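the two lines:
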Amino acid sequence: MPPSRFKDAATVPAIRVLLIGALLGGLACLATSAAAHDTANNDPMAERLEACTACHRPQGVELEDGYVPRIHGKPAGYLYNQLVNYQDYRRRNRSMNHMVAHLSHDYLYEIADYFADQHAPYPPPAAAPTAALAERGEQLVHRGDEQAGIPACAACHGDRLTGVEPNTPGLIGLPRQYIMAQLGAWQVGTRHAAAPDCMADITQRLSGRDVEAVAAWLASQPIPEDTRPVANAVVDPPLECGSVPVPES
Amino acid sequence: MFRNRILVLASLALAFLTCTASAADQARLERGEYLARLGNCAGCHTAPGGADYAGGLALASDYGTFVTPNITPDTSTGIGDWSADDFYNALHNGERADGSPMYPACPYPNYTHVPRDDIDAIYAYLQSVPAVEQRHGDHELGFPYRYRSLLNVWQMLYFDAGEIETDTKQSDDWNRGRELVAGLGHCDACHRARARLGATNDADDAPGAMIHGWYAPPLADPEQAGLQHMELAEAAAFLQSGKREHAAMMGPMADVVFESLQYMHDDDARAMATYLRSIPAVSVDSPLRLIRMSDNGRREAMAEGRQIYADNCAECHGDNGKGREGAPALAGNRVVTMDNPINAANMIRQGGFAAATEGNPRPHGMPPFYDLDGRDLAAVMTYIRGSWGNDAAPVTATNLER
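prediction for all of em together
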């Protein structure tokens, strides 16, 4: 076998994977001119938001330099918070910081609401990870790890992992690298949310292998029939999570 | 009894005086906030994601990188211990509270035209914003610019302090407009090239200047940024909303609209438009010289560009370049036909939204085309610049390298 330029994935230290993932996730999205436009005719909002859908497609877009997540069908409050986080540089991504730079909060909420209402089909799930990884992943997602102080993902993101109104995103239909990159970004402090930043606290308690396990297991889950976020806010959540107030009107 | 009545009257009078005083203070703070917005102090004195007016923005220049100072009322790291006189002296004479001269990266050569009363109102407002303790590193300037004392010589050579005299032959609107454009609005800080050593080039046909990778075109040329050919009401609304039929302000000017001009009162917008429309129109050459292209090269680029346009642009901007709601017409669009192609190239590469304002609350966004290589970008620009009646010179990839 010829010597490979690439190390076996298993031997790459997890933290490096995380950092690379965070970097990739943070790189500007590359709108490919080849990406076909599928503007819904006569939808003025779709026409206004072609700058968004050039990269954010319902299936997610895998690019050489990173992954552009699906934003369709996520709770409006969550999407609005992310747009404001980009405007206030709590999240950093050159493309996104540029796009939202001079949009009003009212319009940002309208954009969030528009995408929350889009329900195109999800991409198919990834292959299952190894049994050991799957076991740890499932444990963290559904039961958490009390000893390590890690609450179950499902406690906040909903039993079906489709998110919870108004501010908690679904975790389904996302690729492994993207989830790893986001958790890594929280760990190294390049992704923030409004205080109290609960995900920053939780990710500090995750080992590199935990991140790998959660991401691999989530990415391999079949898409549930009902993909809508749960309507009722979680009663007594394990941690308090901050958010920016949505505009009145 | 009598004494009691006097006491009651006295306390009522005192309450009344305090009340009018605080109403006057409040009005002044509001005026100060308004003026600080027109001057867009926050545009430079707020870092991305940083606290308002706490400074820390890095401004790249030919002389090195300036780091904007903290102008919140914190006493140790801001301007909390500055008096109103100190503040006026800084904006009017370019002198810091410690007596040392200021770099003209802060546009005090403009602010010197602002009346004392307005500067005092801005001072009062800035002293009322939350104090933020935040210290920044020094400017990182090359030799010899880092020697601040040399600025004394610079000021002697290039800087004249003082308000502009009212031109009695002109209307009040015109005079107010000139004061806003030349003073607080500091338009020429970007729209007019700097001459030697950062002094403003005073020639009537001075080109524009580069800012954050964009070209701020000259206001004297109606084929570039000039408003001479617009109706007064249209020009005033364009300044406030950042949008008019078939065009929207983009790049750093969209920031200026979002942070500053959208808050401009109607009378000030009319005044600013009145003055800008009156600037004698001249044709101004681009500082960026386009590389000549052979007829053959141009034909090839036009053919390639036509295909790229059809694949990527025509859906919104139309086969005829006439655009549609939210997608500006490219035929006859001066950003497209301007000699300097850099702004149109930025628009294509970076995309983005116009500023969301009252007059344009839900702007359309242009998708970015980051991966168009220089050759394809030059070809599609050559096609757009040379079609539908547009008659601008072709662009080469070399011209678009940054």
